[in-house]
Structure formats: C-alpha cells, structure tokens
## 1
Amino acid sequence: MIEPIGNQYIVARPVYSANAFAEDHKKKLRYHKTFLDNLKVCCSCSTQKAKRIALSLFPIASWLPAYRIKEWLLSDIVSGISTGLVAVLQGLAFALLVSIPPSYGLYAAFFPVITYFFLGTSKHISVGPFPVLSMMVGAVVLRLVPTTSTMSLDIFNSSMSNDSSTDEYKVMVAATVTVLSGIIQLVMGVLQFGFVVIYLSESLISGFTTAAAIHVLVSQLKFILQLQVPAHTDPFSIFKVLNSIFSQIEKTNIADLVTSLIILLIVFVVKEINQRYKAKLPVPIPIELIMTVIATGVSYGFDFKNRFNVAVVGKMQSGFQPPITPDIQIFQDTIGDSFGIAIVGFAVAFSVASVYSLKYDYPIDGNQELIALGVSNIFGGSFRGFAASTSLSRSGVQESTGGKTQIAGLLSAIIVLIVIVAIGFLLEPLQKSVLAALALGNLKGMLMQFAEIGRLWRKDKYDCLIWIMTFIFAIVLGLGLGLAASVAFQLLTIVFRTQFPKCSILANVGRSNIYKNKKDYSDMYEPEGVKIFRCPSPIYFANIQFFKQKLTDAVGFNPLRILRKRNKALKKIRKLQKKGLLQVTPKGFICTIDGFKDSEDELDSHQIEELDQPINLADLPFQIDWNADLPVNIVVPKISLHSLILDFSAVSFLDISSMRGLKKILQEFMRIKVDVYIVGTDDDFIEKLVQCEFFDDEVKDSIFFLTIHDAILQILMKKDDSTSKFNSSQGKDAKFDFTINTNGGLRNRECQVPVETKF
Amino acid sequence: MIEPIGNQYIVARPVYSANAFAEDHKKKLRYHKTFLDNLKVCCSCSTQKAKRIALSLFPIASWLPAYRIKEWLLSDIVSGISTGLVAVLQGLAFALLVSIPPSYGLYAAFFPVITYFFLGTSKHISVGPFPVLSMMVGAVVLRLVPTTSTMSLDIFNSSMSNDSSTDEYKVMVAATVTVLSGIIQLVMGVLQFGFVVIYLSESLISGFTTAAAIHVLVSQLKFILQLQVPAHTDPFSIFKVLNSIFSQIEKTNIADLVTSLIILLIVFVVKEINQRYKAKLPVPIPIELIMTVIATGVSYGFDFKNRFNVAVVGKMQSGFQPPITPDIQIFQDTIGDSFGIAIVGFAVAFSVASVYSLKYDYPIDGNQELIALGVSNIFGGSFRGFAASTSLSRSGVQESTGGKTQIAGLLSAIIVLIVIVAIGFLLEPLQKSVLAALALGNLKGMLMQFAEIGRLWRKDKYDCLIWIMTFIFAIVLGLGLGLAASVAFQLLTIVFRTQFPKCSILANVGRSNIYKNKKDYSDMYEPEGVKIFRCPSPIYFANIQFFKQKLTDAVGFNPLRILRKRNKALKKIRKLQKKGLLQVTPKGFICTIDGFKDSEDELDSHQIEELDQPINLADLPFQIDWNADLPVNIVVPKISLHSLILDFSAVSFLDISSMRGLKKILQEFMRIKVDVYIVGTDDDFIEKLVQCEFFDDEVKDSIFFLTIHDAILQILMKKDDSTSKFNSSQGKDAKFDFTINTNGGLRNRECQVPVETKF
C-alpha cells in the first residue's frame, strides 16, 4: 500500500534496469491482436451483424417509428417552412456562384434533401447548396465552358439560342461534377473512409473558408457591377478575373451597383441588430426574405429590366426537367476537382452535424453521412442540381426555429417544390445583383477570420503558418487544388514539428530524483563524467542526423573520431612493442625518445575501415588509460565522459533508418568505453527493438533503465565499486613502466603513464 | 550530493506540483532567441564572413594549395586512368538509357567533371552519368520526342537525315532537361536547401532504386532484342513498353540476343569472382573493359553489322560540338521531371559523398554540393551532355584504386577527352546490345533489394509499406512523379505513426514509484477512484478525437453526459425545493413520493447549452452527493472516479486544435468534480500553454505535477485530509433530511441520501 506521509515523496526500492525489473515483476503474457485477427473480426458474418448494417444503412428505420407526432410535429412544421424559404433564396443566389441560371439552384435545394431524409444520420442539418461548394463547382464550369468574352453586355440581347445552349452545357458540367463527387463520396463511405475529416484542422478550415469568401466576393462582383467576365482557368484565376473587371470598370451598370449596395447595407445593419438583440428577439428578422420581396416588387413595378437594362433572374422554368446522363468524358477532366468537392462537402456537412449531435447528444456516423451525401449528390446531379452539402446559416435556421428531425428538412423541400412548380414565376423580375448582394451578406463572418492570423501567430507559429499557407494556396491555386496542397502542407508541419526537437542536457535539481534542463536552474548537480541527454520527440529518418549532431554537440566530441585516434595510437604502440622499443615499468610508460617518426600518414581504405572497429586490447599484456599521457608523439584527445544517459521518455517511436543510426551512435560511444543508458522508454519500445534485431554482443538490452535516477544511481554505484575494487586490489596489481629504447633518439624525455595490467 | 546506498533507490523529498517545484527552485531567466534574432545573425555582414563564404564557394582554393604532390599524385594518376576507362564505357552505355546516340554519353562523362573539380567538396566521388538519372532523362526524351514506330528495324537503313534530325532533337531535349535541373540545383544550393535529402529515408531509396533497376531492365530489352519500341508517356509507360516488346517478340535479332546473353553471363560470373575473392585479388578484374575490347574486335572482325544486321555504336563524332541554347518552351513541359532529376541526382551524389566523407573524415557541405552539381549540369547540358550525378560503381573504382582528391577526377576526364577527340572511332563496330548487357550487369545488387520487403515486414510495418508504395509509385507513375508521390506518402506515414497512439491505463507495480501498463502485470495497485491514463504520442488535430475516445473508454463514461444528467437532476431538485416539496432532514433526502411527474423532456437549444455549464450549487442550502441515491425519479449515473492523471511525458507537442479539444475535455471532467492532474511534461510545454491562454478560473496551472507518483501522493493526501476533516468536523456538521411532501403521492417510499451542508 502506498501511504501518504505528510507532504513527502518517500521511496525506497532497488535500482531497476529494465531487465532487473522484469525479473522482479513478471509480465503477463498477453496475446496481441495481429492484423489478421482484426481482419477476421472485421470480415466475420452473423445475422445480427447483417441486421445492424442494414439498419445503419437506413437510419430512418430507427428514428421514424419513434417519432413523437404530438410533441414534435408542430415545431418541425414551423422549422420546415422557415428553412424552406431560406433554401429557395440561397438556392437562387448560390446558382449564380455556379454560373448557371438561378432556377437550377432550386433543384439543388430540393433533390438532395429527399434522399438525405432516408439515409442521413443527423437530425438537424439542412442539406442543400453551400456557397464554397457552389464556388468550387463554378470554377470547374468556368474552366470547361469558356464564355465568349465578345458577348454583348446585356446577355438577353445576345443571340438567345447560342446562350441557352451554353447554359445547357454549363448545367451539364455542373451536374456531371456533382454526380462524380457523389460517386466518390459513396465509394469512400462504403470503404469506411469517413475518418478523412480529421485531417482538416481548425486553422486549415479557417484559412480555407476565408479564401473561399474572397473567391465568392470576387465572383459576385460581376453580378453587382453587371460586367461580362470571361472564364479563367484555375491557378491564378482570381487575379485574372480581377484584371478583367477593372479593365472594363467603366461599363458598370449603375442601377445594379446602387441596388446591391443598398441591399448589402440594409442586410448588414439588420444582421447586426439580429446579433445584438439575439436574446430579446423571438425570432431573428428574416431580412433576406423581406428584401427579396421588396426588391422583386420594386423591380417589377418600375420595370428595371427595360428601364435600366439590369440583369434579372428571368424565365423560371416551371416544373422539372428530365434527368440527364452525366458525360463520362467530363469525368476524366474533373476527377481532381470532384475529389475536392466531395471532401469539402462532406467535411462541412459532417462538422455542422457533429456540432448538433454533440449539443443534442445523439450519435452520427461519418461513414453513413458519406453514403447519404453521396447518394444525394448522385440523385441531385442526375436531376440537374449541383453539389449539395449544408449551409451553416440554413442549418442554424432549421435548428433554432425548433426543427427536431429530418421531417423539418422534408417540409423545407416541399416549400422549395411549391416554388419550383407553382410560384417561381413571381421571382422572375428579381435582379441578379440583389441575389449577389444577399450572397455577400453572409460573408462577413468568414472575412472576419483574418483576425485569426494575429491570434494564431501569438499562440502557435505552425498553426499560423498553416492558416496563411492554406489561404494563399486556396486563393492562388483555386479551391480544389488549393485544398489538396493545404492538407499536404499541414501534414508536413507535423513532420516539421518533430523534425527539429529542442534537445537538452539535463541535470539533477534539489539532489533528489528530479532532473531538469541544465540551463534553466542555477543549483544543478551533474555527476562528473556523466551527461544526461533528452530528446523530446520521435526519432526517424528526417531527424536522426539532427539528433546525432545535437548529441555530439552536447557531449563535446565526435565518438568516431576519438575511436579512430585511439585505434591509430594503438597501432603505433603495437608497432613500438613489436620492435621491442616498449617496456612496461611499474610507473607507466617511460619513453626515451621524442622524435619517433610516424610513417603511417597514408592509410588505404581497408585500413581506415579497421580504425572503426572496436579497440582490441586482447593481445596486449597491459591496458591503456586513454586519458593519461601516452608515449611521445602519440596524442589522443582526452575525454572525461564515462557515462551517457539518453532520456527517451518522449521518443514515441523509431523507424528503421533511425534505429540503424541510433545503433551506430551507441556502438561508437561504447567502443570508446562510454557506457550508454537509455531511460524512460515503455516496454513496447524495447520489444520493438528486440523484434528488429537491434541488440547484439556490443549493444545489449541491459542498457535500459526505468528512470534517469535509476541510471544515475547505477553509474555512481559502478564507480564506487570500481574504486573500491581498485583500492583493494592495488596491492596485488603491479604497475609497469614501458621504456622505449630508440636507436636514433636524439633527445630523452620521460613521461609516465599509469597503466593497469590485465590478468 | 547523491550517494548510492547499495543497490537501493532511496528518495525523500516533498511532493511536487509544477508550481510548488518552481517555488522551491527558482528558474533562471533565459533569453530565448526569437525568429528575428536568428534572422539578424543570418543576415549580419563582416569581412570574415564574406571571406568564408567566398572560400566555401570555391573549395579548390582550400585543398589545392595543400596538395601533397609527392605522396598523392601517383595514386591519383592510377585512379584517374582506371576511372576514366570505366567512365567511357558507362557514358556510352548510359547514353542508350537516355535514348540518344552513345557518343553523347562521353560528353556527359567529361564536362561535369571539370566544373566539379573547382566547386565540389567531395574528394572521392566520380561525377558523371548515373543509370537511374539517365533513365529519368530518357523518360522525358521519349515523352517529348515520339519515335515513329513504323521505322524500319535497322535504323541505319532508314532515311539518314530524318533519323539524325530526330536524334538531334532528342539530344536537345536531354540537354535542356539537364540545364533546367542544373538551374534548380543551383537555386536550391544558393537558398541553402541542401537539407532536403533527409526526406529520403533508407526504405524509400531502396524501393526507388529497385524500381529504377526494373525500369532500366525494361528499357534495355529493346537493345538486347533489337526491337523498335515506340515512345510511351510516363504513367504506366513500363507496361506499355512491355506490351510493345512482347507483341513483336518474333522480330528479335538473334545475333544481338545471343551476344548480350553471353556477355551478361560472363560479366555476372566474373563479378561474382571479384566479390568472392575480394581479399585475394590486388584489383578487381576489369571485366567490362575486357569484354568491350573483345566484343568490339569480334564485331569488327566478323563484320556483325552487315552479316547479322545488328545495331552498332556507329559513327563517333570526333571532337566537340558547339554548345546549344536550351529551349525555353521545353522548360515549361519538363519542370516537374527536372525537379525530380535535380533531387535524385543530388541525393545520390550526396549520399555517396557522405559515405566517403565519413570514412576519410573530412567535411562535405550539402549546399555547396548542390551548387557544384548545378553548375556542372548547366555546363554539361550546354555542351550536349545529359544529367550528371555519380555512379556508385565508378566512385568505388576511383576510391579503391587510390584516388585521393579530385585530381583523379580531372585525370579521368582527360581519358574521356582522349577517347572523344582521338580514339573514339575504335568503338564504332561495338554492338549496342553489348553496351546494354554491360549496363544490365550492374543491376544485380539493386534487384536483390527485393529481399528487403520480407525483412522490413518483420521489423517495421510502416517502413515496409514505404518500400512497397515507393516501388509501386516509381514503377507505375514513372521515376519523377513516383519520387514525389513516395516522399509525400513517406511523410504521411510519420503522421500515421502518431495518429493512433497506443494509449494505456497505468497502475502501480511493486508499491513504489513505478507505474506500468495495467494489463501487463498481475500484482498492480490502482488507488480507488483514480485512473492514470498515458498517451504515448504528440496530440494534434488528427488525433485529438481519437485521444478523447480512448480516454472516455478508459474512464468508462462520457463526462459531458454525466454533467448534463446532473444539471438536469439539479433542475428538478430546485423545482421541488421551490415548490416547498423538499425538506432537509439530518439523514438525507426523505421522499414520500414515487410518481413525481417529469414534464421537462423537451428542452430547447438554449436550455441544452445551460446543461453544459458548470454545476452551480450556490443558491442551494445543501450540497448533493451525486453518488448517493437521489429523490425518486431522479437518476444520475454514479461514478466512482474522483481523480484522473494524464501522463503526458511522451506528448511532445500540442497544436491549437488539440489544445482547444484538451481544454474542453478537462473542463468536462472538472465540472463533474473529477480532479485532473497532468504529469511528466517539461517546462516548455507549460510555458506554451500559458502563452496560448490555456488556463482560466476553471482549468488552472496547478494541475501539473512532476511525476505520476507526485500526483498519486497528492491525491491520497487530499483524500486523507478530507476524511480527517470530515471526521473532526462531524460533531459540528449537522446532517439534514429532505422530506418531499407531495400532494398526489400514491405510494410512500423512503430513500436516504447523505448530504453535507454548506457553510
């Protein structure tokens, strides 16, 4: 039993190396599941499992039977109607982002909701168009369907047939990209790839959505100013678009500009009021709806279209159009973009869904969400809709107006349906610039995220870098490619973070078992000849050289160089001995020569390899103390280090490259008689090394100790031992002098080196 | 002083939280260099620095004046001649890999050596053609210059002019790619990007070179069988080439096939002999040279060219050709490949150079090497050579025959020069298939690397995966793109390794200060109500969810859910109290009601947010023991956990995302009165958290303790404290009973809950 004794930390136990501990405390034999075992579990089959999978594929089968009509239906209806109205407006506005006629936005707000109703696991998100996603689809559409820049300013005056066929092709491209991204989502869902969202960190999402907001802003400028902007392909497209706009800025339609500025101003102000008096207002003022109604009325009443030549929503096709078969040829050209759309769409929907799932405490299933979104997009795309995910604001409306289940979503789809089949024509006089202004009204929050940069810079440089790079990538390369580049860069930062670890030398503070960075405290104790080196990160191929460099810096010498110098010196001593020039005297080496000629400057490659071998003293009748003075002309750097402790408590893994490097380092130190101790590793770490055949006769598994303090005690004990042994055996041990008799010695000099004879 | 007492680990010190320790041991104020400081040092200017930089730009200025003519010149001459002969043969053979006439290979073996002589820092590598690099250049050449597949079998019979212009264009492409990659290397060198090589791990290099060997093998097949193979662009090209070859296998030139098989056999056998009797042979048998001489003689003597219609080296242009200006248009098309060539070329040269620098103990400078190779490639490319690096075998020859400095390299270039200007015509009758066979003779070692797969699988699954994926990428995508994909994949594995850490629950072993995985040992002690959770890897955006999941699994409940249930229960208790239905009795709650109606099933979103707030008992006249039975119908899950220790000794960093996640987790636990302790972190870690405003009134920096044992002792002490306080204050403390008087209570039931009153 551990008993607390006052505020005291009192421990008395044997010093433990990993081996000694294993002897005292037998480890249980545990069966570790292999890859095959996991595969077996994964692939095993049972009726129950089949049933569970079937149920999880159709979540509606679980929640619909449990629907509490009396309690939930009313709030679902209220929520459904509000959401539906928002969905209509957003559908129209976001269709402009895709560069297709607004009416198609309604399809995007209708079809996906139907399938999600059956397949989705979230009860609160409102599936449908999302600005960033619409932008991404729009980028593909603009790339594949170049609009002729010579078209007249008012698109309604230009040849109608040509225009509508272009529009048709645009819709076709948008639908195809949507279907393809749906297929990708479906496949990912089936393959259980729902975990990919974890690779989108907060900093990345923040930088990405800010860039997306800039893209949206720029793309809406042409509607606000009512300019014809030719299509630009992805990388650098934003700059090209801006260039086009400013080069024809004098052609601006003032009526459109004024309308949108007024709308924008009103929307901003009312949204601010909504935000500030959140608590006092029963529901937020539906300013978008109000503005749309007013703007449509004004535009119709004063016949803006003909009077000011503004662009209006125009002919709303009443009812549905036949489904289309996606163009396989387009699949090939858009696979990269579709991948981006699939990922972003899922990431947004999933993150919004998880906010609500956490809030209302029900489970959502990432993989099922992928399947639901995938099917929704395939379905929606086939009926000429464009990529759906969820919009934060619309989901917010659905939830805050009391939506309890996807029944609300279904009802919102019915509202959209009514607009599609019956009252869509009412919106025909609405100016496109009004829709653009409404779309911009939502961007404030996203653009405010620029403030993140400063905050992140103060907190974490790497996160700040991720934000900035993501923003730059997404702006410059476009959203699809930019996202890929950002994710790659972000993963790279994880490597960077571990690649240049802040290695430090530790020493004892307070004379107990606490070891801290030597530079940080003043009253430190470091036993003589002992270095404690801490590496605070995993070691792998990219930082093993760095680790080695830091370790060499810390100990102050390169062990390999010392080894070579000693081996070279040994060669000379052997040669002297062979020639009979060396004699052992009890006091050490006595040499009567100063100018002993060294003819061995040139070593061939084989000889150099020999120098890297362990020092072999087996055939010498004496041992050499390398830190004492050696016979004349033989100079070996003296090192005071006898023990090196590597604190590996934060080294979470080694890879093969680093293992080989580490072994080499250990060997080099051991060959110059520096004892190496590795401490703080867990058992798995040692097991892994055993498995990789790390240990041999030179590097043994006895180098592992539980803690730094265990190793330090072991070192002190060993030193004590050897001193006392030396003292006790001194009587028996004879010390000999070497005398070098030289023929050509001009000067005589004596140097005494203590040598210990071997028995 | 720490004194070893037998084999005993004896410690007595106060229990330390991080704060208590900081009070006892004052930290020194250290100035940490900021980014700006480092920039200042980097950009500072002085005469000395300028001189050092100038010297480092021309390493020859350091080593040439120190050249020991007497000792080194002879061996440099011997080495230079041997290397030169090998360079001639390799130049001819590797030119075939580039798909250009063999004579251009001689330029590649001549020009780069000259510039490297002045700029290089390695004394032993032999700069010049390298098979993998030649392959990579060849892939670009074949992509940009499609050979007409309708060409007649014997290229010398086809229209000469057409052919030579094609060849000229090929040479042009090869030279342009070489210059571009040289420019990339030069720029990287100037920007100090020499560190990039660390991203090429051993497993990656092994997999990559094996794939390169396969590419070389396949590309040489057409020379050995003497078939016309049309060009195929990069991804999947290897399969397309194989398809082409097998579809026309019946057109094989038997004479070429037989010659190359014989050569291949002899080369293999003699190389084996060289290897086996390495120690006994004074120099390895120069079998390539011998075979070339014999094959040339035989081909000339028996007029193979006309008799068997074999392809020969053919007209060797004597002397040099004028330099060419690279085609800027080609730059655009080959920037990706050039990048790959630049990196691979540098990586190979640098790794070979560092082997020798380590062996002979002299420094090499990665950035200077980049500059040297870059200039060499620009120079060589301008004179119609192709990309140069170093070949392992040729550098081996230069070193093993005694080369001491780049003087040997310069002499080898002179040998090549002699062949170019004088005796090149002698090689004209040599069969191309012989050159191909000689190139293949060097592949055995690389192909043997397949054995790595099994070895790596046993040691480290991730490394094995890197090997296999690199191999597949390089085979399928081609060498340039494949390398990029492999590096990306390899970096991803670093993320994978840390992403799913093996979290574990620790417990005390042996009743001292040792804590190990609870599952591993049998006689473990875990204080009641305490969990010790260890996360053995950094925590960041990609694994914070995983960490949370594992922690929830470990403690057995979701703290947020408990908090909500408690807050809900509290609401009910408050309501009861307000209605006067609740009275405090000394023995706890006494309730006389069973069917208390719960009308609060439906909560709106605002109310749900309230449930996540800390439990506020301030306005209640009593405290509630959540683990005791509560009044009827109020059920809250009981938890026994009162303290949670997080062992973060291996958590080397947190990012912003994970910090936010961690804080949320800590809050949730603290709000349900579970004390959280974080142990094992270093000081930097806490400083970082302070900097990121991690701490507030709820999550304080007093949760940090030095070790698990400190935290455990603190917990036991606290518990002791509260028990004794409770015992001593029991006399004063009054316990009250709550009595619920219900109006509609049907059944009476009593349940007593111990409550502690608040003062």
Note: Chain A has 28 helices and 14 strands.
## 2
Amino acid sequence: MTGIVSSPARAVARRYGAAESVEPAAWNPVLEVLHEHRSVRRYRPDPVPDAVLRVLVSAAQSAPTSSNLQAWSVVAVRNTRRKARLAELAGDQDHIRQAPVLLVWTADLARARGLAAERGVPLDGADYLESSYVAFLDAALAAQNAVVAAESLGLGTVYIGAIRNNPAEVAAELALPPGVFPVVGLVVGTPDPTEDARVKPRLPQEAVLHHETYDAAGQTEYATRYETRLAHFYADQNLPHSWIDRVLTRLGSTAALKGRHRLREHLAAQGFPLR
Amino acid sequence: MTGIVSSPARAVARRYGAAESVEPAAWNPVLEVLHEHRSVRRYRPDPVPDAVLRVLVSAAQSAPTSSNLQAWSVVAVRNTRRKARLAELAGDQDHIRQAPVLLVWTADLARARGLAAERGVPLDGADYLESSYVAFLDAALAAQNAVVAAESLGLGTVYIGAIRNNPAEVAAELALPPGVFPVVGLVVGTPDPTEDARVKPRLPQEAVLHHETYDAAGQTEYATRYETRLAHFYADQNLPHSWIDRVLTRLGSTAALKGRHRLREHLAAQGFPLR
C-alpha cells in the first residue's frame, strides 16, 4: 500500500480538490487505498505474473453477484499483437499497448444458456433488458474489486469504456461466443512514475449524497463550485479543461458516442435480444 | 478489519469452497477484506452515523467514473416508514427494515441534463442505451467501493437488486426526477452475530478467467464441480439448494423476473428513452 498520504483529512480534501477537510470518522489501510485511486495512463513494461492475476481474480470473484448467478467472465490479454489490435479498436489508447495486460470484463449469460441447453429447458429471462443490466452490473462489481486489489499491490489501472466502440470486432478478436459481451476493459500494470498520475477531484459530496429523498436544489451551485476546483486542478497541469464543457460535449451528440449509439444492434448480434 | 482468517491460503480456499489452496502470491489487509466479503441478511439496530456515511460516500466517489461524468447519485434512507415501504416494494426483504440505513444507488443523468438545459444546448447522447449502461456502471463502481469501505469498518452489507422490481413506486417514494433511475439498493448496518453469515464459494477460477481468447470448453465440468462444492456448503446449513437449479429457475421465465421484464418501459417513463 502506498503510504503517501500525510493525513486522512488531507486525503479526503484532495479527493474533493478542497483546501481543507474535517478528519474522517474512521480510517484504515483499506480506506486509504480507496481514496488514493488515480487512473494511470503511462506504464512500465514489467509483467503482471499469473500468480498476481489469480489474486486479482479471486478478489473479483469475492464481489457480490446478483442471485449468485456470477454472470461475468474476464479475458486476460497479454499477447502484444492482440493488445495492439484491441488498442486500435478501443480509441487507439497507447496505454493499452504499454501495459503488460488488458483485462476485458464481459457480461456472460453463455454459462447459464449452456446449462439450460444441456437440460433442455427454456431460459426466457435471459432475453430481457433487465438480464443485460444484471450481467453488466456483475461484471462491474467484479472489475472494481480487481481494481482495489491491484492498487493495494501498488499496481496502476485504468478502465477502457471504449472497448464498446467496436464490440463486434472485439468479440471476434476474443472469440466471445453468443451470450458474452465486452463490458469494459481494464489496463493493469506498473505505473510509470514520470506520469505523476494525480487523484482527480470529484463533485462536492452534497451533489451526490441525498437524504431520504432526492434533492435537486443546489445542483447548479455544486457544479459551479466543482468547475472552479477542477479548473484549478487542471491548471496545475497546464490543461485548460472545463468540466461542464466536457460533460456537455461527451453527451451532446450521437457522434460523440464514437459508435456506441449502435450498442443495441451489437448486443442483439451477440445474443442479447434485450426484450 | 476482521482478523478472523487463519491464513491467506485458507481465505482463498474458503472463497472457492475448496479443501485446500496454494498460498496467494501476495496478501495485505485490503485483499483480506475483499476475500472475506459475505452478504449479511440479519442486522442489529445500531445506527450508522452521518460521519461514517460520509466516509463511505467519499470512498464511493473515489471510484473510477466514465469520462469523469459522475453519472450517479445515492439516496440514504433511514426513516423507518420509508424503509418499510421500500422493503415492501423490493421483495419484502426484512433486513431492509432491520438495518439502520438503505442506500439507493441511482443512475443519474439529470445533473448533465440540467447543465445542458441551463446552456440551452442539446444532450442527444444521453438518450441512448449506451448512456444508461454508462450511468448504471458508474453507480455500480461507486456502490462497490462503499461496500469495501463498509466492510473494512466491520459493517455488513447486502445488495438489493429487487429495488428494480417496482421502479416507478421507488422513484415516487424517493422523489427521483426524470433522468434518475434506481439501479441497486444497499443495506448497511451492524451484522447480527447470530446469523453467522458465511463466505459463499464461487465458481472455480478457470470458469471465469480466460487467457487471450474465451475458452468455452470445460464449462460443464466447472459447473459440475461447483455444484458439488456449493451443495456441500449449503448442506452445512441444512439447505438443499442446487446452484444449477437456482440459475435455471432465476433466468428460466418471465415470471421469475418479478416485474423486471418491464424495465424498458419503466426506464422510458423515468426519462431514459434508450434509443
């Protein structure tokens, strides 16, 4: 674990890009690792051995799963050419090439479909939109446990949502059978210290935590406060980004989805009819 | 943190319901907490103070989020009558009533929609199926960090997928505006030690971890091996469950979805057209 943080209050303040914070009610090595998360986009080539991968996956399997369905699988890609091909398909992100392994987390209803076929029984529930969310959520919970496990070992990670830009080609590259769909990629490796990846500040807690009922009041104020804090964060790195502009651009148009506007047809082709 | 485990190899073996396991390549308090996860379904009434809740949510906000959209919110419900009402709506699960707080994790595109409305710009990307997955995944990653944080503090948790059984009524109870949808509930509280919640074994790791490409061979054998291990686990508790039967029942029919077959129309009504 990192041992970088000077104090728990400092760690929480940094997470919010705030000048100061009250001392959190509790602190321990787990909370430290969680709060210290940063996305790493520059890697050293040092391998992630199979034995380490196995610990990440047993941590992933320890995550909760809806009705114990375990409706996910993960494909570990280390082959240089396959990794390069997936990098091309997923927004040409160079860190996929740099890092020793790309984990592709998949929604997996093929296992259940196989069991149903063997018994000759229907599996009508699997055809619904709901079951795709179940499988996507199962994959996400497992992947996030793997992230926490990796970071506890000093490894860096970054999710690759762009694995959904070209899902048909990704499915072909990974030989995913019907019923299996790529949800998210996860790069894992040793952080290149020259990147100096930072903890990115988040929205004020009041913006996301509601008590008893959803409180829409104040959202403009929270966004404005965050805009200022994040501009300060980016200015330190000579980046001129506005959070609000980025959100509005990212969700503003069909084109900004980079192919993902066709997700429904890609899911159907891969055996998810989404009734 | 728990300090229950006699050895890392024992913790990993228990996760797989195996008689023995090799020593994992690495171990630390974070890996211990992750592997020790169990769903808790009996709670003591001890409150979860606001200060503790704030740490759980700052841990949740520390999770990765797609393009830093932070497309989620959480509603903390402590009111006894509201909690009882939500318990009724979510499969009548008594642990929702017992525990001091139910966290309802939501997919939240309302924040982005509000910013777009203020600027008078379109937000066409938010209308797509893809953006619902982005928001569901964001909510899942945040929720899972909160689970890990809670368990590191000795608290128990259990997810409530049944919060999606009656999403219109849940949205009304929590005053969720258009663009906000309940993804999953999370009960948090002090475990009642009389329950003696156990670590539930998972599928053999070979069933979920694939190398380079998806390997469909062996899935029947892994499921059979798991069926035996899980039967052994359940037998200890005088429960006759078969994993395969449970999977086939859970996904076998429209009726088994308990209302969730109508998710598409509920999402549309709540401002998610899923283009």
Note: Chain B has twelve helices and six strands.
